[in-house]
Amino acid sequence: MSIPLTPDASLHPLVLPARADAADAAEFRELARVRNAVYRELTGRTEQDLTPEALLPILRSRKERTTAVWAVRVGGEIVGRTVIDIPHEEGSRVAIAAIEIHPRVWGQGIGTAILPHVEAFARLHGRAVIQNWTEQPASDGPRLQAKTGFGSVPDDHVARFLIRRGFTLEQVYRVSRLAVTQETVQRAEELREDARALSQDYRVLQWMLPTPPEHVDGYAWLKSRMSTDAPSADLETDEEAWDAERLVATEKRVAEMGQIMQVTVAQHIPTGELTAFTELGIGPDPTATTHQHDTLVLTEHRGHRLGQLVKCEAFLSWTGIAPASRDVITYNAEENRPMLAINEAMGFTAVAYEGAWKKELS
Questions:
Q1: Distance (Å, whole) CA 311 – CA 161
Q2: pTM for the complete prediction?
Q3: What is the CA radius of gyration of the chain?
Q4: 250 in Cβ contact with 242 (< 8 Å)
Q5: What would the pLDDT profile of 100-109 be if each residue is shown by its tens digit?
Q6: pLDDT digits over 173-198, tens only?
Q7: Which of 142, 168, 169 is nearest to 154 (CA)?
Q8: Mean pLDDT of 240-263
Q9: At 347, phi and psi to the nearest 5?
Q10: Hey, how many other C-beta atoms are within 10 angstroms of the C-beta on 292?
Q11: Reduced to 3 states, what is the DSSP secondary structure of residue 246?
């Protein structure tokens, strides 16, 4: 059932097709096209593009969360989407929501009309907090500082929309890019040797998904610690429970998306514990940008240059796995100075910033 928003705009619940190429998948495929167009317009970049086949597994509900999707239409034409994730962690107060509308229809009151429906859906699921991550267009104008004191985003149309509707900027993520050149490869080799000298009780292990059975439990534990050990400012962060079942399901989803992923870990030799990891992945286009996904060093193993070790080892081996990919992109919280220092030493440069926003529902 469509929901009227303005005289011209409406919100339409989207039923996901069984397959992206199914006979009833036309609306979903158009939504995927518009999603890519919105991101390109906002960022001026293309590395967030996803094919319909890659987007579909992301939007399906799963054991650990419920996902709801609506198409935003103006005069029958899809101009954006709204997505809400409801995490299933015990005691969670959070709904994670995105309202993504093409800038050419901004200023018509569409986003303002959507937000009450987002809040109603969150309350229906017993949530008291809405959180949102938004990358904003680059701007030379005024900046808005995060509550952490680290980083800022443009004080633009997007920021004003969120602030007027009760959101606060809790955290800023830096979007960084590393070009694959002879210079950056040589730099990574030097940094790897420096890290090895301070991490002699650790060895590096690497694999391509799926994870070998002997490392499933250790890798799942590392993934669970992303929700507790990574900087999260005053955002509501649920402690995620990862086990073998969740890890295997996640890796099947990566394969369904047409992606390959390499995992690089540091193993503590005396105990056999996996203590740090990073992930590099790419989709079906071998010339596309490589994405560095989760990276973490367990709190109790910090101070041994393990982050530097795994990131450099991953980058150096990846040049042989995906030699046609000429750059790597990654996201890091601005207050995560140790990880950003590694990135800067490797040659990553900032290309954009993403705000993490939070609203307490009355």
A1: 37
A2: 0.94
A3: 21
A4: no
A5: 999 999 999 9
A6: 999 999 999 999 999 999 999 999 99
A7: 142
A8: 96
A9: 110, 5
A10: 22
A11: helix
CA distances from 107 to 110, 158, 183 (A): 8, 11, 46
% pLDDT > 70, the chain: 100
| Tens-digit pLDDT profile for residues 211-244 | 999 999 999 999 999 988 877 778 888 889 999 9
Report the alpha-carbon angle 226-265-172, nearest 5: 35
Structure tokens given for 355 = 């705000």
Helix axes 244-256, 216-229, angle to 10 degrees: 90
Cα angle 175, 177, 180; round to 5: 165
Determine the Cα–Cα distance for residues 147 and 61; give it in Å rounded to an integer.
Answer: 32
Pairing outcome for strands 168-179 and 202-208: unpaired
By DSSP bridging, strand 349-360 and strand 65-74 are unpaired
Q: Please, which pLDDT band fits residue 138 given cuts at 50, 70 and 90? A: confident
**Tens digits of residue pLDDT in 1-12:** 789 999 999 999
Q: Residue 174: CA atoms inside 13 Å, Cβ hemisphere, count?
A: 19
Mean pLDDT of the chain: 95
CA–CA separation, 226 and 78 (whole Å)? 35
Q: Which residues contact 344 (CB under 8 A, 6 or more apart)?
A: none
Judge contact between 296 and 333, C-beta under 8 A.
Answer: no
Is residue 136 pLDDT above 90, yes or no? no
In three-state form (DSSP H/G/I as H, E/B as E, the rest C), the secondary structure along 251-296 is HHHHHHCCCEEEEEEEEECCCCCEEEEEEEEECCCCCCCEEEEEEE
Instruction: Please check whether residue 130 is in contact with residue 97, taking contact to mean a CB–CB distance below 8 angstroms.
Output: yes
For helices 26-43 and 52-59, the axis angle rounded to 10 degrees is 100
Beta strands 77-87 and 94-101: pairing type? antiparallel
Instruction: Give the number of C-alpha atoms closer than 13 A to the C-alpha of residue 340, restricted to the C-beta side.
Output: 18
Q: Please, are residues 233 and 335 in contact by the beta-carbon 8 Å criterion?
A: yes
- Asked if the model's pLDDT at residue 260 lies above 80, the reply is yes
